[in-house]
Amino acid sequence: MSDTQRNDDEIRINENITAKQVRLIDAENENRGIVSLKEALALAEEEGLDLIEISPQANPPVCKILDFGKFRYEQQKRKNEAKKNQKVVEIKELKLRPMIDTHDYEVKVKQAKKFLDQGNKVKFTMRFKGRELSANDMGKQVLSKLVEDLDDCAKVDSEMKLEGRQMTMILSPQKQ
Asked: Of 14, 18, 40, 56, which shows the fewest CB atoms inside 10 Å?
């Protein structure tokens, strides 16, 4: 397996490091410069710690003298922290009809604002039944009015497009 295909679980330590020379950072985070692998291993053993390859892509690779268990723990902690801070954006769907009543329309706008404020995208699906499809400009008018009414809190992610008997449009929240 090449260096580019390695995953995070395959960190080289001590004798598994293959480079002849390494850029060494000691236990006190002091840069020792470029030293031979044997010298770096001797220093690590003298300290009672492990030699860990931190950056294998660098030339020469960067190695640090650390306790391997502590290193893995810190790495896992950073990974969990990053996972905790990420926001998953969902797409919420609202279905409409071209002959929508004003109150129903206002309810849909209110729902869309709530979803957008939560940071989610909103997909509007305009359904056409029977002969409504031949007059799809009514559906376009309703969707255009939606864009105008939600202009303060949303931007158009994907323009309205007709797919079979339904017209869809996706809005995403504006960056604050």
From this structure: 18
Distance CA 33, CA 62 (A): 10
Closest to 143 (Cα-Cα) out of 171, 118, 174, 119? 171
Count of helix runs (H) and strand runs (E) in the chain: 4, 8
pTM, two decimals, is 0.54
- Let me know whether 75 and 101 are in one domain: no
The CATH code of the domain that includes 46 is: 3.10.20.80
Q: Are 136 and 128 in contact (CB under 8 A)?
A: yes
Same domain membership, residue 95 and residue 79: no
Q: Which domain holds residue 108?
A: 91-173
